[in-house]
Amino acid sequence: MGGAVLTLGGNDKLQRFEQTIMPHLDAAYNLARWLTRNEQDARDMVQEAYLRAFKFFDGFHGGDARAWLLTTVRNTCYTWLEQNRRNRVTTSFDEEIHSTDEDSMNPSALALKSGEVEMLRESLEELPEEFREVIVLRDLEEMSYKQIAEVVNVPLGTVMSRLARAIGRLKRILYSRVKDKS
Amino acid sequence: MDCSHAQSLLDTYLDGELDPVHNVEIDEHLHGCARCTQSYNDRQLLRQALKTEPLYFKAPTDLQQRIQRSVRQTARAEAPSRWFFPSWIKIAAPLAAAALVVLLLVPSIRGPSSDELLTQDVVASHIRSLMVNHLADVPSTDEHTVKPWFNGKIDFSPPVSDLAKEGFPLVGGRLDYLNDRPVAALVYQRDKHVINVFVWPSNQSAQISAPIETQQGYHVIRWANAGMNFWVVSDLEASQLATFADLLKSSFATSPS
Predict the structure, then answer these.
(1) In terms of CB atoms within 10 Å, which of A31, A63, A121, B71 comes out highest?
(2) Does B64 touch chain A (CB under 8 A)?
(3) Is A45 helix (H, G, I), strand (E, B) or coil?
């Protein structure tokens, strides 16, 4: 009877899902936490993303499970961000105020002393999402450019230029914060 | 290589993702340029801080249990027979026998056909896409953006054409799930009305079409052509939706995609 086949099929899918996708929970949470910038929303996003991932798991034909999951996490977060943006005044990065001549930057300012991690965290949070996510994926998640291209769904060349611009912006924000403090 | 070009490649150089030719060029440039070397050192410091400082958010311990529970719940809902069939067989068998008797005695009683069930699913998917504000995974009015987006996400390539000139602009695409498989959903708009077009491969090669159906106030038009199933659903007025379906059919007939 069809029932028996179905039984195996359902079980098997759950088991495969738990083996391949569940281990990447930290990666999913880290990305969601950086994109939403708060714990409660990150939890909701990850849960929603996991349910979506399970629903579409038949479409996963092997390959990079972490990148596959993070694509779903990212899409879920962006849908949420779109909805929230309408109700919120966006704090857009002001190039004018933050712009600093790279030459005048004191390199030691970038050598963070202990206790200044907060400053780095805040600066990274201040970056627009498209720049924030590539830094999170590369430096925190240690993904290759190819994996990042898959998650963000852009060509490899765009990953390259976006990362370069992201680090440039982060440097400027960080520097202006160090200067404000001293 | 000039400084601005070198600057733009410094990060890729740092990541070891640069091609060999540019790699050598950066090496040489850094030897002779103090300004870029400083910039390189800055970036290295910053990158080092990003990697070593505790910036990574690990998932809270209870989250895994919470997710595992809800995924398992979903799995149960997807395959209800799993809980029913093996351990309850002793009860199920007489029940099935009784059901058989009923079916034999009352031949006119039948469950909904698979097409009727699918129509319900299509309408439910349409409503869901409007409710959770998740119309498009790839919001774009450009057919050349929407079509390639599906690459690698599903095992077929749906035909996509923009009908903006005819008054039905394409607004995007998304992945959905119907008939036990992932399907492509193409989203169009007519004034305030949203039209979902669900596409997936069909094993029918012949051209078939079904009459327009209405369920819960939504109209459904479906057909199969060139090895694909098309299900169009919207709250748009029936005759306008039929016009849309005809436009879509003829656009696929003329375009090579």
Answers:
(1) A31
(2) yes
(3) helix
**Neighboring chain B residues of A83 at a CB cutoff of 8 Å:** 133
Q: Which two tokens stand for residue A172?
A: 């400027």
pLDDT tens track for B64-106: 999 999 999 888 877 655 444 455 555 666 677 777 666 665 5
Nearest Cα of chain B lies from the Cα of A90 at a distance, in angstroms, of: 20
Characterize B193-218 residue by residue with b for buried, 16 or more Cβ atoms within 10 angstroms of its Cβ, and e for exposed: ebbbbbbbbbeeeeeeeeeebeeeeb
User: CB–CB of B57 and A29 under 8 A?
Assistant: yes
List phi, psi (to 5°) of B227.
Answer: 75, 15
3-state DSSP assignment of residue B235: coil
Q: Classify the complex by whether its ipTM is higher than 0.95, answering yes or no.
A: no
Q: How far is A6 from chain B (nearest CA, A)?
A: 7
Q: Which residues of A touch B46 (CB under 8 A)?
A: 110, 167, 170-171, 174
Cα(A24)–Cα(A34) distance, integer angstroms = 16
Run means of pLDDT, 10 residues per run, chain A, 182 residues: 43 88 96 95 95 90 92 94 69 45 50 68 93 95 94 91 90 82 68
Distance CA B21, CA B14 (A): 15
Which residues of A fall within a CB distance of 8 Å from B9?
164
**Per-window interface: B 198-257 vs A, CB < 8 A:** none
